[in-house]
Amino acid sequence: MKKTILSLMLLACSVFAMAQSLEEAVHKLDNAASVKDYEALEKTFTTLTTQQPDSWLPWYYAAYCNAKIGFLYQEDGDKIEPYSVKGEEQIGRAQALLDSARQQQELSEVLTVASMVNRIKVFINPMTYGRKYGMLSEKYLQQALQLQPENPRALYIRAWVKYYTPKMWGGDKPLAKELAEKSLGLLAKDKAGTEPHWGKAENEALLAKFR
User: Fold this and answer.
1) With DSSP H G I counted as helix, E B as strand and the rest as coil, what are the percentages for the chain, rounded to 5?
2) Is residue 26 within 8 Å of 194, Cβ to Cβ?
């Protein structure tokens, strides 16, 4: 009996430690800004996938880190491909852990990052990859917004796309501003923790372009 109680206590401590590790990593992610920051955190989240094999969050955050690196290397496309390859695999692993019928909010978050991962593939060579991966990125973003129209992260990506797309191809800077402001307002309702809550800094950076 004592051995059983001790085993349960050790298991509980282990689960608590893993949850705490994820929370610490996400907290560091909230303050990440450089390629070096995201590379280090991607390794941390990848390690956490082995400790929490049934959780979609470590895979999601690992993919998000690779997507963010791709955005930081937007003007240096030759460096992006390895990050896009890892990000694609990781976000696929996150999606595979979700029940698409019951976890629609979570799926919307995963599809948003899938859109980002395909967007960075466009940066590698816009002339070669723009049509294929631009369309895939748009497909995932549309699916994310269909599942959760008020997802602030999906709204931010829509705002980003509208801002940077030429007007002749559907770009719309006034709409981009409107969407970024809406996303920022919705983010005020998000709580810090392990669930996705990023987007404030990204929206603020986009809105600063209108000043």
Assistant:
1) 80, 0, 20
2) yes
Q: What is the mean pLDDT of the chain?
A: 92
DSSP state of 75: T
Q: What is the mean pLDDT of residues 114-125?
A: 98
Give the Cα separation of 39 and 44 in Å (integer): 9
Pairwise pLDDT comparison (34 vs 7), residue with the higher score = 34
Q: Are 203 and 184 in contact (CB under 8 A)?
A: yes
Does the global pTM surpass 0.85?
yes
The rounded distance, in Å, linking the Cα atoms of 135 and 119 is 9
Q: Return the H-helix or E-strand segment holding 96.
A: helix 81-96
CB 71 within 8 A of CB 35: no
SS3 103: coil
* Spatial separation of the C-alpha atoms in residues 123 and 112, rounded to whole Å: 17
Contacts of 178 (CB under 8 A, 6+ apart): 159
Above 70 in pLDDT, residue 19? no
Distance separating alpha carbons of residues 118 and 70, to the nearest angstrom: 10
Q: What is the pLDDT of residue 1?
A: 57
Are 95 and 107 within 8 A, CB to CB? Answer: yes
Separation between Cα atoms, residue 21 and residue 169, nearest integer Å: 44
Phi, psi of 177 (to 5 degrees): -65, -45
